Every structure is written in structure tokens, then in C-alpha cells.
Amino acid sequence: MNLKHLRYFVKVAELGSFTAAAEQLHLAQPAVSMAIQKLEQTLEISLFHRHDRQISLTDEGRELLMHARRVLMAAEEAELAMQELSGLKRGEVRIGIPGMLGSYYFPPILMAFRHRYPDLQISVIEAGTRKLQQMLLSGEIDIGVIVEDSAASELEVCPFLREEMMVVMADDHPLASCERISPQDFFAQELVLFKEGYFHREVINRLLKETGLQPHIGFETNLIPLIKQIVKQGFGISTLLQMVIRDEPALVARPFEQPVLLDLSLAWRKGGYLSRANRTFIEFLADQIRQ
């Protein structure tokens, strides 16, 4: 099979359109159609149902899509490995980080890494930990920050941070006078929460499962500045890491009655190729933790 034809096939399958795939590939639409026809002739199967102007994958097409993605990922890794050996390409770190850590924990680390290795390119993707796991497995990123206890079996993990999730409220909120907050008192309040898929929300879902309580959700947003403003104005309370409100005198953080601890890890695909740039970043972060 021709790798180029496989790339065209994957793009058409993902977009559901020969025309859209041709535009993204910067090719003429007939060239893409011809490549798919040649692939079908080589395999002696039909990959797409073609009806009017719509297409959909056949059973054989769905099976090939799974294998084609793996083949293309392996080919890209092999090419990168050879480029590194021959010194043809400067390194790139592709890392996915949840927004809370990306805004408050990683900036000094990323700047220090960039200062030490100015020739390495750093690409940072912001997403929830669930989405980051999917991106790792699909090869969209090389390293991701995930919650350790939810790691997929296909991933290698390197623990690097344990933090306590805190109840955050305005300094004049009635619960601000408490030393610790019970789940019952927390869930009785109007809540400002991250959307599903972020570790912040997974902590809440875990507490709900353990206690059987029902939440009162007033706002859902992944925008940390908005969460802090809503909480400051007294329209709800939330849970955040202590580092997020370190310079916010109008906000206070209180622990839960039973500490809610979060174990975070760097993760990458088992058996996948890690470039020298990515290995260097992992080693750099490990050195920072030991200091």
C-alpha cells in the first residue's frame, strides 16, 4: 500500500468529503478521488459508500481506518527518528496541559526549559485530562498531563505533582469562617464548575459518587478568570488549587473535611517513539521536581 494514498484515505474518512479533504491537502479533488480508487483497486474492496454527494465508510473502510492511523503514526515516528540521527531537524516538544496548571504551574518551567534549550520548539495544547489522553493515543501530542489514577493502560506515566483541591469562596462568604468544609455544606451552595473532562470536574464527580449528594450548579466554564470573578461577587463557590488564588486577597481557600488529593503525571504512549526533545523535557521536569 502507498503511504500517500493512506494519508488521503484517512483525511477523506475524517472529514467525510473528498472536496474538503482535497482542500486541506492542497490538492485537486480529482487527484484525491483517483488515489482512493487506486487504493480500493489494490485492496480489491470498496472503502466508501457513495450516494449523491454524501459518502460514508463501508465496514472494510472502518477497519482500514483503524490500521491506517497506526501505520501513518509509525511512519511519522520512524521519519522523525531518522531526522534526529542525521541532524536534519531541530527538536519539538508537543505537550498537552490542563488550563489550571498551564496558567499557574507550568509557565516558569516552560520558560526555564526554553532558556536552557533555545533551539527547541515548544507547542502547548490546552485541554482537559480526558481529551489529552485521547490526543496522546492518537499521536496528536507527544506528552500530556493527566490524573494518574485515570491513566489508560496504553500510557506510560511519570508522577510529578501532588496537590490538594481546595474549596474557594469570597472572603465574606459564611463558610469562610470554617477551618474545613464538609461535602454536605459544599454541595448545598451554588457552585461554579469546570465542564466535564477536566480534573477539576472529575474531583467533584468523585465526591458526588462517594456521598450520593446532588449539586447545585450555577455556572459551568473553563475560564479561570471568570470563575474567580463569579466567586468574588458571591454568586457561587468552587474548587481550585491553592496556587490559583495565591495573589487574590478577596478569595479564601479551605480544605475539605477529608483532604481531596490530586496526583498528576506526565504521560506518553507505551512503545511510542519519544524524540530527544521530548525525552529532554521529561528529564528537565524531573530535575525541577528534585530541586
UniProtKB/TrEMBL annotation:
Residues annotated as domain HTH lysR-type: 1-58
Sequence similarity: Belongs to the LysR transcriptional regulatory family.
InterPro entries assigned to the protein according to its UniProt record, in alphabetical order: HTH-type_LysR_regulators, LysR_HTH_N, LysR_subst-bd, WH-like_DNA-bd_sf, WH_DNA-bd_sf
Keyword vocabulary terms for this entry: DNA-binding, Transcription, Transcription regulation
One term of GO molecular function: DNA binding
DNA-binding in keyword set: yes
Cellular component terms per the entry's GO annotation: cytosol
Gene source species: Nitrincola lacisaponensis
CDD domains in UniProt: PBP2_LTTR_substrate
Protein name, UniProt field: Transcriptional regulator, LysR family
